[in-house]
Design a protein that fits this description.
Chains A, B, C, D: This is HD domain-containing protein. Chains A, B, C, D: It holds the Pfam family HD_assoc_2. Chains A, B, C, D: InterPro entries: dGTPase-like, HD/PDEase_dom, HD_assoc_2, HD_domain. The structure is a homotetramer. By secondary structure, chain A is of the alpha+beta class. Chain A folds into three domains: 168 residues, Hypothetical protein af1432, CATH 1.10.3210.10; 67 residues, no CATH class; 80 residues, Alpha-Beta Plaits (2-Layer Sandwich), CATH 3.30.70. Chain A has 19 helices and nine strands. In chain A, α11 runs parallel beside α18. The longest helix of chain A is centred in the middle third of the chain and has 19 residues. At the B-D interface, α10 of B face α10 of D.
Chain lengths: 391, 391, 391, 391
């Protein structure tokens, strides 16, 4: 057992499988992918990476499988899945996810190909694990796969606490110790003990509050949207092949964007934190349903239309309309008298939290500081929205 | 300025008024009144006192009055009120509150008499403060009095964080720094900046979760009910005069109860943590409205009736039916565009949290371990309740 | 396994033996004995008790015996010893230790009699443990007894971290996780791995700094000396029998002192923090060797002589000359290449820390504020010391 | 005032000067320079940057100038100096310092040229500050310049606590609050109050222990030495101009090394954490004085000689012989009775800590895993050392 010191969990003990996995380039790469991508532009101390997060998820998975007395084989599979669960992430994590899916047709949780093509698969096989089974667990399928990806998985338990530690925002400090203690299996399904509804709620609450103050902060959303547009250009123009794109680190992507003429300006703006501003920022009630979560094609069409109306470059307008939030935690199972219920059936808070999540939703239209007035006016005209609720 | 080191806030600077107040016996007494009374029987590290809490409230009040640029005179009054706000508490704080009110007709927030009768009043006057004005602030009245006692007062900001620190339960770690930053005055009324609804919600959430896991923990409720019954006996029998009772420390009350025959058994049980158990523990839905928050007289009548039915001593039955929870935080003002709204109008969470608070309500009937079955049966018969939802 | 939440270690799991021990009155009493006795008069949040500390020591002992793969029988004995190691403490812990030794001839680590006379012994036997063997471990003797009481025992690991958490002074935050990891057994002797000399040093450093800022703070020393004199009077006058005295809680001792005429004034002063002040406070170099660590008889004689010279009541003078500090940690074993060395042989820091400990030594003479000048002058004359280095 | 949330200090308030400085590319670049360079290869959560550290140093400087009541003009200068003190750092901070000095002849603390050549100078002038005066303060010269760079500067106060927070190693948690409180000026010189010798010692201790466990960890030293050799090649071959080199970010340097053939292998090894190992690791006593802190020319000559002896590529041998440690903190001034003394004169610990620092000194010779035996043997022969103390 090799102990590794972690800022959040203290000592994390790596067994020989974990050590071998950690030594692969695919895992080492995660040292250079920030967990919270552009959030560091708002919370300067949020520079933690998917590497240390992966160690933390592995640690919690180990504790949970011990706690649940999972058979050795399955426990090893789940621990391995916890450790590698993020290797499929592209640069800047979620913020290039959509661009990668458009060009590769692959979600970051589908890591079967990665296990097949990189050393990771070989390491797993050497240690007697089936790479396909591990990939299945990463995707939340198979026996107890929901421990790795599910309503109350160890991924979320780690990131809420870790993001709180590194941003300095305390809302994420759920009681992960208690959550691990509260885990049960009922007929092979993962559940939370009945007396621990409040513990399960706390994870849901923490994510709702972290969404409001950290994950959906407008500065991070703007930088993310800028990254997405630049990434799309890079990929659509063939400047970087999608397979290579997906394996870049944060800094390598920024460098590639800076080197390629058509994206150089956006990249320099991100690097120097000279970001677009909000021309429009409208809450859910003021936005018609058909403008919520619109697809990329339509988004582009609107951007061009607004740009034309504002008489600015097409690249000077970014429309950002996310899908409505969902809360997987509300589907967590609660074990009561041998029965299983869903958290949303047992907790009066869930509906309130859902409404709260809906309330922080915003439609944003972003533009360089000089173009704000023109873009705002053009947006009102094109979208037929009264932007009097603009920031 | 004398710096005092605090486990929660770091250095707290006491000015000369604060130093003089702290040196009075009335304030020193608070070193011997635990902030969370019997919660230490569940969370063994919860031994912090109303003394250190008072220093913390003073500290936050100082930061808030600085932040709000309150005029010197008023700021001094508010800081003094923050510091002395708990001197009216009896032994074991809230857990003897009802007994004291029954026998003295006085709530712990009414401290005018204390200021008049003890050195505190003299100290205030020497420093140019009007004791009545300070007492008014403690009660949440007068200019900015709500900073000391109101929807989002510094009292709550301190105790949520302090209770989290000392119990080890992380739900109370609200962002008190941010809350102090978010304070505004609008036409002399205290409000939270519009962009900080999530910060205000977090305080409400923290209290809801701390209620569920700490403040309303059944072991603490049982010990509290036992204390209340013993205190009532002591006072009703005239064994201790109510004025003296109200000024005892935790340990002095326990000693008085141990020395007086009729209460010696209850006192020994509390001291040795040999508590009554739950014979019945029923949630809100299963309890008719007229059994919620019943008064002392009716509670005693029910206890005697149940004891008769169970053929046990009257003292062997405790009925505990608290009033329904309320959430003063939901009335916090939010400043938006010059207007003021209430948090409950701006936050979808409030209704969910109210429902959640209602959900953790329980009617309890407690008895010694040997009498549980008999008392349960008698309760079912007397109250006409199906106790199949007993613990 | 019953999990108990602790403010320092998170969840502590109690096995059935631990639960049974915790339920005894002897253990419950420790809830009412503060870990740092009168230090709370300086650091107001230092109200943690020997009860929670005992749980913490048990927790670290459990982790250490797991780590060292100790045989089940011995592990159970060591864990039990860790849990009960403080039951022998009198009220206010170390501050009544000397008075108890004078009148009972017994040190607080000798708990054999307690195990024999109280329920604790029965509980141990029921669970198959020999009370004498447990008492031996508490005293640091027998196999691995030094884990409970020795150069680097789990007692110290817990209290340094816990005292830091509750005072807010960060110097005590040693890396107890690392220390437990670093433990080895070499030929049945406890040792620290060679690569962890810095970890062992850190414990020594932490205690040295905590001594300087917390444990030997002059306010705490004054209150302790006042307690000792009052206790001596109580015991010498037969007002409380020594056996009963040794089992009192902090508050019970204060109450007994307040009730007994000759000690009532000292007790009220401690309660209201109206303490004696330093008339004299001289460092080691200025004090002749024969005045260092003087015995109780000679101390009393000096006090009377000084009081006569100052023309004040004998009780108005307290001479406080502690023995010179020692540092048991410096004898910790370091495992290197199969050999064992002592920390002091491997660490250049030890000598520096010893000198540092010597530097914070002070001879104090304390008196009521009004008598300071007279007592200072009389001390100079009686002891032949130039008190120009007085505070 | 714009509040920025920091994981260590909570809210940091930036005034308008600080905001304008932070918005320059020179400051934004520090977001991409890790504070602890390659330490993240040992402590995976040590990814904090010189950007957030700069904000922290600014925060402590603000508190110190408030505390010391420094005149507004000087306070502004010192705060500005604190904020920009690290802009002169090259990629990977201290680990490319020597290479930059060899090729640019400039130390990172000499930032006059930077202020002159970049926007920073203009921003300072706009706000009425003289760039030369600010540069002087960064270098520790001029009035109270030692607050920015001196025996007990705010730079060190911040990094010790921040490095502890992010590595998870608790030894760095000095009481920076107390240190700021303890600051005094005596005749314009910065000093620590006499009663706070222990506080000053604690900073020295913290750095000594952080050196042993973090800053001088052999894995970090190996990676640093590899970086230095690769940087030297890049610069000596003219592949990157020294002026440009000094302004790269961590990732940009790694990319440049990966792209340039002769350094590609070293760069890939650092990226994938496939580092050289210790062929030789000898402590101070076993090394003759003339091999301690040898210059670059002689180091290269020895490497070539050892490589020849071992029959490996010259690049496969790295000799790493640091200079002996010094401890600037020991020169901190202590204010006593109007006099000033040095910490080393008042503290018995300093000598012990110096000896301790000497003890952790090691001469290392590093090589790829396959060449270890050959390189070890050749080193013994070339240096005439018995490497029996190798790792």
């Amino acid at each position: 057992m090799t102990p590794v010191k972690d800022g959040v969990h203290g000592y994390i003990e790596l067994g020989s499988l974990a050590e071998a996995l950690v030594d692969t380039p695919a895992m080492q790469r995660l040292r250079y992918v920030r967990q919270l991508s552009t959030v560091q532009l708002v919370y300067p101390s949020a520079n933690h990476t998917r590497f240390e997060h992966s160690l933390g998820v592995y640690h919690l998975a180990s504790r949970a499988t011990d706690r649940l007395d999972v058979a050795d084989d399955l426990a090893a599979r789940l621990r391995a899945a916890a450790l590698v669960h993020d290797v499929g992430h592209g640069p800047f994590g979620h913020q290039t996810e959509a661009a990668i899916e458009r060009h590769l047709g692959r979600h970051h949780d589908e890591i079967g190909w990665l296990l097949a093509e990189t050393e990771l698969g070989g390491v797993l096989e050497e240690q007697g694990l089936d790479p396909d089974a591990v990939a299945e667990s990463v995707d939340g399928r198979g026996p107890l796969g929901e421990l790795v990806s599910g309503a109350l998985d160890v991924d979320r338990m780690d990131y809420l606490v870790r993001d709180a530690h590194h941003t300095g925002v305390p809302y994420g400090t759920i009681d992960h110790d208690r959550l691990v203690y509260a885990l049960r299996t009922v007929d092979g399904e993962l559940a939370i003990a009945d007396g621990d509804v409040a513990t399960a709620e706390s994870a849901l609450i923490a994510r709702t509050l972290m969404n409001a103050t950290v994950y959906r902060h407008h500065v991070s959303r703007i930088a993310g949207a800028m990254l997405d547009r630049a990434s799309e250009t890079l990929l659509a123009d063939g400047a970087v092949a999608p397979e290579r794109f997906a394996r870049l680190t944060d800094a390598e992507l920024l460098a590639a964007l800076e080197e390629y003429g058509p994206t150089a300006d956006l990249a320099a703006r991100i690097r120097d934190r000279d970001l677009y501003k909000r021309a429009v920022w409208i809450d859910r009630e003021a936005v018609p349903d058909d403008l919520v979560g619109i697809d990329y094609g339509r988004t582009g069409a609107l951007e061009r239309e607004i740009a034309a109306g504002a008489e600015v470059e097409p690249a000077a307008v970014i429309v950002d309309s996310p899908t409505e939030p969902n809360s997987p935690e509300s589907r967590a199972r609660i074990a009561a008298d041998g029965d299983l219920a869903r958290l949303e059936e047992r907790s009066s808070l869930v509906a309130g939290l859902d409404a709260c999540a809906r309330e922080i939703w915003r439609l944003g239209v972003y533009a360089p500081a000089d173009d704000l007035a023109a873009v705002r006016e053009a947006t009102e005209s094109v979208l037929g929205l009264a932007a009097d609720v603009a920031p």
